[in-house]
Amino acid sequence: MTTLPPATIGRTLLNKVPEVTLLFWIVKIMSTTVGETVADFFSTTLSLGLNGTTVVMLALLIVALIVQFRQHRYVPAAYWVTVVFISVFGTLVTDNLTDNLGIELWMTTVIFAIALAVVFIAWFATERTLSIHSITTFRREAFYWLAILLTFALGTAGGDLFSEGLDLGYLLSGIIFASVIAVIAGAHFFFKLNAVLAFWAAYVLTRPFGAAFGDLLSQPTDAGGLGLGTTITSAVFLVIIVVIVTVLARREKKEQPTLE
C-alpha cells in the first residue's frame, strides 16, 4: 500500500481543475471555437434563432454544472463538457446584448471587463487567492465558473470588436490575439510574470483567438472565411475534443492513488 502525504492527497482528490498543460490549452482553444460555431449552428442552421438557442444552451449548461459540482475531484469528461457549454452560452450572452438589445461591441467589452474584475476582486477578498490549483470548496468553484463564463463573454465581445467592429477580419484578428498570447507566455516563462495573472490573461485571450479561428474556417468566403460551414467545423473540433478528453480521462484514471 502506498501512503500519500496529506497535501498530495488533497491536491489529487479535491482540486476540481486540471493541471495547466499543452493539452489543456489545446482543448480550451478547441472549446472556444466550438462555442462560436455551435451557437451559429443551432441559431442559423437549425433555425432556433438566438432566443431559442440561448434557452436550450442555458438548460444544458445548468445540467453540466450540476454534474460538475457533484464531483469530488477533477473528472475530465464532466469538466470539459461544462467548459464547452459555458463557451457556447458565453457567446450567446454577448450576442444577446449586441443583437437583441443593440448594445455596441465596445460597450459590451467594457461591461464584461468590469464584471470580470469585480468577480476577481470578490474572489480574492473572500479566498485570498485566485489560483486555479486550489479549487477545493464549493465557494471557490462557484467563483471559478463565474469567472470562466465572464472570460468567454468578454472574449466574444473583444473578438467581435476587432474582427467586425474594427473590420480587421478573422485572419488578422486571430494573428493579433495569438501574438499577444505568445507575449504573455514569454513574459511568464522568461521574465517570471506572475503565474496567476498570466493564466487568466491568456484564458481571456484564447477565447477571441479560438473564435476568430472558428469563424475563419466556418464563415463563407465572401465574409472573409474559408466556407467550411458551421456543421463541418463544429463536428471536426468536437471529435478532436472528445479524443483528447478521452486520453486525459485514461491518464487521470491511471494516476489516481490507491487509498486503503
From TrEMBL:
Keywords: Membrane, Transmembrane, Transmembrane helix. It comes from the Bacteria. The chain crosses the membrane at residues 48-67, 74-93, 105-126, 142-162, 168-190, 197-214, 226-249. InterPro entries: DUF347 (IPR007136). This is Putative membrane-anchored protein. It comes from Alpinimonas psychrophila.
